[in-house]
Every structure is written in C-alpha cells, then in structure tokens.
User: What shape does this take?
Amino acid sequence: MGDLALSIAASGLDAQQAAMDTISENLTNASTPGYVAESAQLTTSAGGNVLGVGDGVLVTGVTQNTDGLLATNALQTQGVLSQSTALQQILQGAQSVFPVSTTSGIASDLSSFWQSWDAISQDPSNPAPRTQVVDAAQNLVSDFQEASQQLSNLQDNAQSQVSTSVTQANSMLKQIASLNGQIGATEGGGTPANSLIDQQNQIMGELASSIGAVAVTQPDGTINVDVGGVTLVQGTWSDTVETTGGTGDMSLVAHASGATIPTSSGSVAGQLAAINQYLPAYQSQLDAAANDLSSTVNTQLAAGFTATGASGSGYPLFVGSGAAGISVNSAIVGNPQLIAASDTGTLPDATNDGGNAQAMAELYNSPTGPDQQYQSLIQGLGTQVAAVNSQVTAQTSVANAAQDNLQAIEGVNTNDEMVQMLTFQQAYQASAKLVSTVDTMMQALLEAS
Assistant: This one.
C-alpha cells in the first residue's frame, strides 16, 4: 500500500512539474510574435488495486490553445485589410498628382490659359498677350506631361512591388513546405511540434497579408497552402508564383500548372487592381483631357485668321496626342503672330481684330470642354479615394476584432498564468508533502518490525 501511495504522489510531482514548466514557457514567450499559448493535458491514470484506488495522474501531452475557425478568420480578414490598404496607398499617390489648387497644377494653368486669350481680344495688335498665350500653353503642356509621367511612375512602382512580394512569397512557400516535413517527422515520433507550428503560423500570417494565402490543416499536423483555390504547398512540395503580363493585364500564375491565380485579398491584390484598373483609367482620362484641349483649341483657331490674314487652319497651337505626347507648335512658339486671333482675314482689320480670341476665351465655360474632362477625372478619383478610405477604416475594425478574438484563445494572459502557477505550485507542494508523509510512515513501520 505504501508503494502505491508513493507512486501516486510521485506521479503528482511529475504532472505538476510539467504543468509549471508549460506555464514558464508561456510567460517567457508572452511577447514572442506568433507564439501560441500551451497547456499541459493531465488525466487520471487508470488502474490501481482491488479497492479501486487509481494510479495517480498522467501528462498526456502539451497542446496549443488554438481555434481553427478563429485562426482562419483572422488570416482572411487581415488579407482583405492588406488588399484595401495597398490600394489606398496607390490611389492616394495618384490623387497627389492632381492637386486641387488655385495657384498650381493643371486646373490652375487651364484657368490662366483661357484668361490669356481674353487679353488678346482686348488688345489684338499688342504682341505681349500673344506671348502670354504661348507661355500659358507651354505651362499647361508641361503639367500634362508631368502628370502623365507621375502616373507612369506609380504604375512602375506598383509592378515592382508585386514582383518583390512574389519573390518573398515564393521563399515563404518553401519555408512552409520545409516546416511541414519537420512537423510531420516530429509529430510522427510522438513529440509535439508546437514551436515549429508557431513558426509556420507566423509565416502564414505574412503570406495572408501578401498574397491572400489560406492554410488548410491536415490530420498529420501539416498544412496545405491555397490562394484563390490554387494549391501552392502540399506536404513537402511547394510551387512557385510568377507574374505575367504588364500594365492593364498583369496577373499571377502557378509555375507547375500554369494556372492563373485569382487574387482577391492581400497587398498584391490591391496592387494588381491599381495596375490593371485604376491607374490605366486615370491615364486614359488624362489623355482624353489633353486631346480634348488640343482638339478644342485647334478647331477654334481653324475658324479664325492670323494677324497677316492667313487662315488659322494651317497653324494649330497644339500638336501631338495624349498627355505625354502633346506639345506646343514650334512655329507658333517662334512667331506668336501666327495665332489666329482674328475673325476676319481682311487687312488691316485682321491685325486689329480679336474676335476669335474672345470666342476662345469663352470656351472656359464649355460643358464638354477639357476643363470638364479634367474635373471629372479629379472628382472621380476623389470619390474612389474616399470609398477606399472608408473600406480601410471598416476593415481595420473587423480585422482587429478577429485578431482580438483569436488572441483571447491563443495569447498568453500573464495574470491567468500566474494564478495557474500558484495552483500547480500548491499541488506540487501537497504531493511532496505526501511523499514525505508516506516515507515517514514506512520508516516507522520498518522500525516497529
């Protein structure tokens, strides 16, 4: 009977020690990124003597405090947030290309350009206002070209970010496959692979934020990694992601199968949306405004006459097309008198008439002119930025709530851990006291015999 009591007490010492070791591990890693709190699993040891007294307590393992559904939800909400945040950054960058200012930028230069025509109409024989028109046109062209280049730079930067993210994702996919091998071997040998799983969770969080990856846990403790239904990791095998296409049609493909990878979350999804949809649309609208400016002005000039009575149809102010290609006619830059500001080709009236210049100045109010085209661009962009800002705000709350819910399960609560430590410490002391008591009793029995 004494041997059984000692055995039971000893099992208590071992069990409480394992529990306290587990709590120590939790407290030590309370601030470690990706660490999942652990719990020692204790169970009654079956058996015992004919009286039904058990054999003490067993430690069946040390498990992680996790919830698969909460973990998946946290990854998915983080991926959606990363997608919106990446798109927000690019759209805000595009918005900065088109400042809403009365002193600079395309809107301001358009206003100055139309006003300069009014100056010609008031003093058509004076060469100074004609020079001002040329200067205003050159400023306007410069702004269009600069805005186009800035949009192109945003496009290039976004494509570079996608390429960098893909390279990093491929490295992480290989790490997941390697960890799968280690986890399988460790778990198969009967040893918990908790620290390896922590590493895997940390990497999966980064993959979810980057390419919207999701993990599918397998019975052996390993995970498969999918993106948009395309499997990129299975066991110790991993595929690589590649980019294809360019501006307007850039996408991700799986190397092994060649399958296009749908992206609806993760920062890469936001960047691809900007590359394929938003930035090309802004560039197209900017080109349309530049072309409309050229067409509107040149058409009006064609209806007028130069100071020498020549038809304005031979002297367009703008040449080229698109925001990047538009420029001021070099002939007019060299000789502003070629501006067809007059309504008549009869001399000397043509020199002193500014009727066509006045008609040009009034185009500022045209409901279908370049000003309206440009205003539509910046208003549409502003609406889209406001919408994505609202999305980021809402999705931040959702992602934070999902992370808080997961952290309540997986995180280390130091107060709770300390309370449990005291409980196990007291149980350990009680088991130790029992060992001492039984030992004293056995010694007394031996002396009595």
